[in-house]
Write a structure and sequence with these properties.
Elements: H1 2-13, H2 20-62, E1 68-70, H3 76-88, E2 92-96, E3 104-108, H4 116-123, H5 130-153, H6 164-167, H7 169-189, H8 195-198, H9 204-224
Antiparallel strand pairs: 1-3, 2-3
Helix pairs in contact: 2-3
């Protein structure tokens, strides 16, 4: 009996198991505490990263031998922090890279801000060479100037080195003479008279006199009548 009383007293002293609702509430509380811990850790990392970027940007500004600086690839949050640090420092910054994991930031001093051609080279993943770019620009301007000059000259006229008429004059002369002979034969065959032969070279006065003479001869012939027939012997 005493043993039963002892067991009962032990059981009564123990805490009862938590209910189902209490167990879920405890789990939710633990998750909230863990999330808060992670947020505080992320916040500390951002603060530390910003301080590190501020130090690198400050060193870059003080280094007169540097005009630009390329950083390692960063995630979106880190790039955002770096851009903010650069803006506060009065510098210029750009992000380059097609893939998110390979995107990086380049910063420039204000007096050495990049040109559009330089930015295009970085966007293509190429290294910027000022001398090579200047040579390409010079060649492009030269080609454009030559094209404008050619356009002002108008269409190109091709002149042969020798006149084909001189080269083949003996043949052309024969052909021309042959054609003239054919034309004359045709005129004779069909009664054609050249225009030059039809031209009246007489003066107006000579022509009028000839017309009057013809009329006078015609009247005389009419007045005389027909000639008498010849007598037969």
């Amino acid at each position: 009996m005493a043993e039963l009383d002892l067991l009962g007293s032990i059981l009564s002293s123990m805490e009862p198991p938590p209910a189902l609702g209490d167990r879920e509430a405890k789990r939710a509380k633990e998750q909230t505490a863990q999330l808060k811990k992670l947020q505080e850790q992320e916040k500390r990392q951002k603060v530390e990263f910003r301080k590190r970027m501020e130090k690198e940007v400050s060193d870059f500004i003080q280094d007169s031998s540097q005009t630009k600086k390329k950083f390692r690839p960063m995630n979106k949050i880190e790039r955002s922090i770096l851009h903010d640090v650069v803006e506060v420092a009065g510098l210029t910054s750009f992000s380059f890279g097609d893939e998110e994991e390979s995107r990086y930031v380049m910063i420039f001093k204000k007096e050495f801000a990049p040109s559009d051609e330089e930015l295009d080279a970085y966007r293509r993943g190429e290294e910027w060479d000022p001398q090579q770019a200047e040579e390409k620009r010079r060649l492009k301007e030269l080609a454009q100037r030559q094209a404008e000059e050619e356009a002002l000259k108008g269409p190109t006229v091709v002149n042969p080195n020798t006149d084909y008429k001189d080269k083949y004059s003996h043949l052309i002369g024969k052909v021309a003479a042959k054609d003239a002979a054919h034309t004359m034969e045709a005129n004779k065959a069909y009664g054609c008279v050249p225009v030059a032969n039809k031209r009246d070279t007489r003066s107006i006065e000579e022509a009028m006199n000839e017309i009057r003479a013809k009329k006078q001869r015609l009247r005389q012939t009419e007045d005389e009548g027909p000639a008498p027939p010849a007598s037969s012997s």
